[in-house]
Amino acid sequence: MNDDELLKHYTARLPQFKIVSFDIFDTLIHRAVHRPADVFDTIAAGLQHSDFGLMNPEIAASFAHQRIAAETEARARLMASHRTPEVGLTEIYDVLAELLSLSHPQREYLMQRELELEQRFCHPNPIMQALFPVAGQAGRQVVLCSDMYLPSLFIDKLLLRCGYTQPYTLLVSGEQRKSKHEGTMYHEVLKRFAVQPHEVIHFGDNAHADVKIAAKTGIKSELFDYLHKRIEPRLRIPLSKPAQDGHVWSLIAGSIRRRLMEKEYDFWGDIGLQVFGPLILGKILWMTQLARRNRIERMLFFARDAYLLHEIFKRYPELLGSNVELKYCYFSRAALLLPSFVDLPINRLCHLFSGRATRTVGYHLNKLGIDPNLYAGQIQRAGYRSAEEMVPNNDMRMLGLLNSLWHIILLEAKRKRPLPLRYVAELAQGASRLGIVDIGWTGNMQGGFSRLLQLMRTDFQIDGFYLGTFDLLIQNQLPRNVFHGYLVNEGHPQERCDSLVNGGVELLEFALMAPHGTTLGYREQHGRIVPLLEENKEDQTIQQLSQRVQAGAADFIDAVLPQILDMGIDSFVSQRWTDPFFRLVNNPSREEAAMLGELTHSDTASDTSNRLFIAEKLPDNVIRKRGKEYYEARQRAYWKKAFDLRNAPV
């Protein structure tokens, strides 16, 4: 049954009963964490970045463990004295105060923190939210039964926050000293409402307390295992809590569950929600922390890969503060690299020709503004038969040819420089501490920007904030420039770098693509410099898919970021946000490999028309033969894990 059919089924059952009973937690209300005790890990993480934690480091470090121990001990004491383990929150904190030697103000502060997070994380179940008002119609009475230590007045607030309004009767085990688990709470319901067991129906998620024990008393029950059967099987994040930064992992899982309850997603939106949303949020938190420390005055978001981040920072100005200017800037390798060519080494220009899609010698020289017909001798001396010969990736002959033409290249760079130079000047005017946001890899964009800017002024400092940087960054290590990589720095750690160069880069460049073409150059309009953008139909098709991914990613960020801003970002700066992405790259499902592998990618500067499959699906006869055609296709594939999965022998 889908959600609508399940709601109809439940609604149809109600007329047979006088009393409708609901469990509360994981039935009416969910928390945006994976398991209830994960709230304690979140408190502990926040304490270690708070004034309280600085003053009381031992309490902060041991809070999560001791909070669980205090509950266990409080239940044991109550069992010994009153033959019931059903404790309340104040009794738990009485024991916690003993274990941690808390003063009364410390005890109250920690208990209040727990209540605040419980309230922040709670959200309603959509099916129960629709069923609840119907349950109280036609003379039926509603009772809420919870095996819970939280006080009933606080649970009333949670229910109201989630849209559940009175009339209802609320029974909480920590106050009643009775529980569903033992069956005593069900007997209390029968007694309080003076009804027979067959006149009561109970909805709950626990197979033992909500179904088995209810049935023993004769009460009809419905197992509402919504999370375990309908939501958690759809999660793309491994459901095993890591040892480090478990509170981040839990918030990822809990927040994805929440969005999956609230909204239907197609594949592209879902992959954005579950994979790219956490990754992008992780980068946002990381770079926000760094930008605050480095006192960035103006943040420049480089097209096309920083488009979504620019949108998020505009939406949440409190991340960097109102004093930090945000600007979206139209740059590309084709538009920026050659005009910025003011120094050696000339192999910086090789980035204009890198990639797996091959082109002719003449094509590459024309892109540099050089007529290949005028330099046939240099082309042949470099080792090419003619300008029509194809140039393989990383062909050292091309480097030799460029060195022989370096003086021509410098003149062409000077000719193309005036408009990009003015554009850079406009973007940097009035600010000395600049931040650049881009996808990253070898620093060419920041290097080009900085080289142009230093032709006009030297009173600046640039911090670049990237998903990653590779070892070729050394070509762009310039004075007054710092490069920060979230996933990898100059190719380290090696394991992550290997994942990026084997499909991760192309997946990221797809997911972060802006809804406009690449920047080809510039023109002057009404005294301002404006970009010339490529219009390519195939590229536009990929842009549309990318926007669906970004919509899902934004849904995740909008669900999580406001909570983190309230709690403070420092305890959430973590590599844990990257786990879903690296799981995708290194261990894709067949569906993920098929859908994403069918995408095409262009890694040629200024031209997105020559595209290759990220992980091509080969004909069955080619797969069976495993000959030259197969191995050449595998060599071309950007994402080897997906290629192998798509082309495994049946």
CATH architecture of the largest domain: 3-Layer(aba) Sandwich
User: In CATH's first tier, which class of the largest domain applies?
Assistant: Alpha Beta
Structural class: alpha/beta
Strand content: 5-15%
- Fraction in helix: 40-55%
Question: Can you tell me the CATH superfamily of the largest domain?
Answer: HAD superfamily/HAD-like
- Spans of 5+ residues with little confidence (pLDDT < 50)? none
- Count of spatially separate domains: 4
Q: Count of DSSP E strands?
A: 19
Distance between the termini: 33 Å
What's the arrangement of secondary structure elements?
Blueprint lengths: L2 H11 L5 E4 L6 E3 L6 H10 L3 H5 L1 H26 L6 H12 L3 H18 E3 L1 H10 L5 E6 L5 H10 L7 E4 H4 L7 H10 L6 E5 L2 H10 L3 E4 L2 H6 L14 H17 L4 H27 L4 E5 L4 H9 L9 E5 L3 H4 L22 E2 H7 L8 H6 L8 E2 L4 H9 L1 H11 L1 H11 L4 E5 L2 E2 L2 H10 L7 E9 L11 E8 L5 H18 L7 E7 L2 E6 L3 H31 L11 H8 L3 H8 L2 E2 L10 E2 L6 H6 L2 H9 L3 H7 L4
Parallel strand pairs: 1-4, 1-6, 4-5, 6-7, 8-9, 8-12, 12-14, 13-14, 14-15
Antiparallel strand pairs: 2-3, 10-11, 16-17, 18-19
Helix pairs in contact: 1-7, 2-4, 2-6, 2-13, 4-5, 5-6, 13-24, 14-24, 14-25, 23-25, 26-29
